[in-house]
């Protein structure tokens, strides 16, 4: 077999759970060939990141084996920069990619930053970079190791259009194995040649060949076939049960016939297939707006970054209930920093009305207390907590009562995102600040979220690099930080 067709990674009947009552993977088997580009697909919390941790060896299977051919090296670009790295300089951060000191480290860093279309002083601290810049650094950190298997966890989060285009081109040309988790449909369809579909209900994985959109069509067609088969079997079962009830009250041969029909019913019930469930979509929701008659937000000057230098700019922005502002600009100009300063009123040039409740979707979820349960994270949003309301709102976002008992830090990134939206519903904010609000969210949920944001009647500020999402929201006012 040619080398490009040989298997580089295999899962052999892998089972994994943190809690025996709640399995995550149940007898998962699949193989990935060298140089292939594979998507892992499945709903939030189904175990996609768990598969990555098993590949990297961060966790071990409860049963089964994960086999890596010829000790192939593995690099992973994670979703979010770990806090332990944020105090490091860019140079120090990249040094952590190697076990031995590299004397040509600066050149290696410069070369790999060229690959991700990014340039930055190597003595700059990670904490002083934006979410989009950190996304590029995370990817470059994985690439500088030149891994045989490259794992990408939501790599387009926080990237602008140029960044996504550059990453896509690179992955198409990348001559090694890539396994990616992403909810960005068009990004995935542009370069992947196979899909691992993780079924949330059976805890198993099914492998498909072909590009992402073709696989989605195959999955939907399979669901329809299985539902038709089950419907026919269910009709047969009900028909026989009706006859059994009739014949059972008769004597002799009729009773024997009823017994035979019971066997046929049991056989049909055994043949009922477990229908592959599509990803569930969150229920339509509204974000109630705080009643507030005065000015909600005023800004007369702001700070931005140009060529890594802070530049002060005069602005004249006044927002009342119902006003919406879209802030745009390239990665690294200071959009996220500006949103943080607005939310926290960190500068003299920004004023928020007294008593205004501010709701803030931070792209890294740093506004959440990871040591609280999801339930308490929701409870703290209510002036007068009502457990019934909390559970009802959480259910709209697919956050079950079991999920709510978990620590926020134990939730998947997608579940954290949905938790933030559930908090908004309970908080009833006067000012909604959204920093990349599609980050980590399953694409099936985005139309529902866009509708809720568009219907929100309070003041709102939005930053997003996803034009198809922004287009669903009516916004008249725009602040382009790249042009002021």
What is the multimeric organization of the chains shown?
A: single chain
- Name the CATH class of the largest domain: Alpha Beta
What is the strand content? 15-25%
Largest sheet: 6 strands, mixed
Radius of gyration: 26 Å
**Mind telling me which CATH architecture of the largest domain this is?**
3-Layer(aba) Sandwich
- Average residue pLDDT: 85
Return the CATH topology of the largest domain.
Rossmann fold
Query: How many DSSP E strands?
Result: 17
Residue ranges: pLDDT <50 for 5 or more in a row? Answer: none
**For the terminal residues, how far apart are their CA atoms?**
59 Å
Question: Helix tally?
Answer: 15
| Principal-axes shape call | globular
Helix content estimate: 25-40%
| Total number of domains | 3
Write out the strand line-up for the largest beta sheet, numbering strands in chain order. Answer: 5-6-7-3-8-9
Helix/strand structural class:
alpha/beta
CATH superfamily of the largest domain: P-loop containing nucleotide triphosphate hydrolases
How would you explain this protein's 3D organization?
The chain has 484 residues and is α/β, with parallel strands linked by helices. It has three domains: 211 residues, Rossmann fold; 54 residues; 184 residues, P-loop containing nucleotide triphosphate hydrolases (Rossmann fold), CATH 3.40.50.300. It is 35% helix and 22% strand. It has 15 helices and 17 strands. Helix 5 links the parallel strand 6 and strand 7. Helix 7 runs antiparallel to helix 8. The longest helix has 36 residues. The model has no long low-confidence stretch (mean pLDDT 85). GO terms for molecular function: ATP binding; ATP hydrolysis activity. It comes from Candidatus Magasanikbacteria bacterium GW2011_GWE2_42_7. This is ABC transporter domain-containing protein. Pfam families: ABC_tran.
């Amino acid at each position: 077999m040619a080398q490009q067709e040989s298997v580089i990674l295999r899962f052999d009947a892998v089972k994994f759970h943190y809690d025996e009552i709640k399995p995550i993977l149940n007898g998962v088997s699949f193989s990935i060939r060298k140089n292939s580009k594979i998507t892992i697909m499945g709903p939030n919390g189904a175990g996609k990141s768990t598969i990555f941790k098993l590949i990297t060896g961060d966790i071990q299977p409860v049963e089964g084996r994960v086999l890596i051919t010829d000790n192939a090296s593995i690099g992973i670009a994670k979703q979010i920069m770990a806090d332990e790295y944020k105090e490091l300089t860019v140079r120090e951060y990249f040094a952590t990619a190697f076990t031995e000191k590299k004397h040509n480290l600066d050149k290696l860093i410069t070369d790999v930053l060229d690959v991700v279309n990014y340039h930055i002083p190597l003595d700059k601290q990670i904490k002083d970079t934006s979410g989009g810049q950190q996304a590029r650094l995370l990817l470059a950190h994985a690439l500088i190791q030149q891994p045989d298997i490259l794992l990408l966890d939501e790599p387009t989060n926080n990237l602008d259009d140029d960044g996504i285009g550059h990453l896509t081109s690179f992955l198409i040309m990348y001559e090694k194995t890539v396994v990616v988790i992403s909810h960005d449909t068009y990004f995935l369809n542009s370069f992947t040649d196979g899909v691992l579909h993780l079924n949330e209900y059976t805890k198993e994985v099914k492998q498909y060949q072909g590009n992402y959109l073709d696989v989605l069509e195959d999955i939907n067609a399979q669901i329809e076939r299985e539902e038709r088969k089950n419907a026919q079997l269910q009709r047969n079962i009900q028909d026989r049960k009706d006859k059994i009830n009739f014949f059972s009250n008769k004597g002799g041969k009729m009773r024997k016939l009823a017994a035979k029909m019971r066997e046929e019913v049991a056989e049909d019930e055994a043949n009922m297939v477990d229908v592959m469930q599509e990803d569930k979509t969150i229920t339509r929701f509204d974000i109630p707006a705080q009643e507030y008659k005065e000015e909600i937000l005023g800004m007369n000057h702001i700070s931005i970054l140009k060529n890594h230098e802070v530049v002060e700019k005069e602005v004249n922005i006044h927002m009342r209930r119902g006003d919406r502002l879209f802030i745009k600009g390239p990665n690294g100009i200071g959009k996220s920093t500006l949103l943080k300063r607005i939310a926290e009123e960190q500068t003299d040039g920004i004023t928020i009305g007294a008593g205004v409740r501010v709701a803030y979707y931070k792209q890294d979820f740093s506004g959440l207390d990871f040591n609280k349960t999801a339930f308490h994270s929701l409870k703290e949003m209510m002036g007068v907590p009502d457990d019934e309301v909390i559970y009802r709102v959480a259910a709209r976002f697919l956050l079950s009562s079991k999920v709510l008992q978990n620590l926020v830090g134990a939730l998947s990134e997608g579940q954290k995102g949905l938790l933030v939206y559930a908090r908004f519903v309970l908080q009833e904010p006067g000012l909604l600040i959204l920093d990349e609000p599609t980050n980590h969210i399953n694409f099936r949920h985005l139309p529902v979220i866009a509708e809720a944001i568009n219907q929100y009647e309070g003041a709102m500020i939005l930053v997003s690099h996803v034009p198809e999402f922004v287009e669903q929201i009516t916004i008249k006012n725009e602040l382009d930080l790249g042009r002021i």
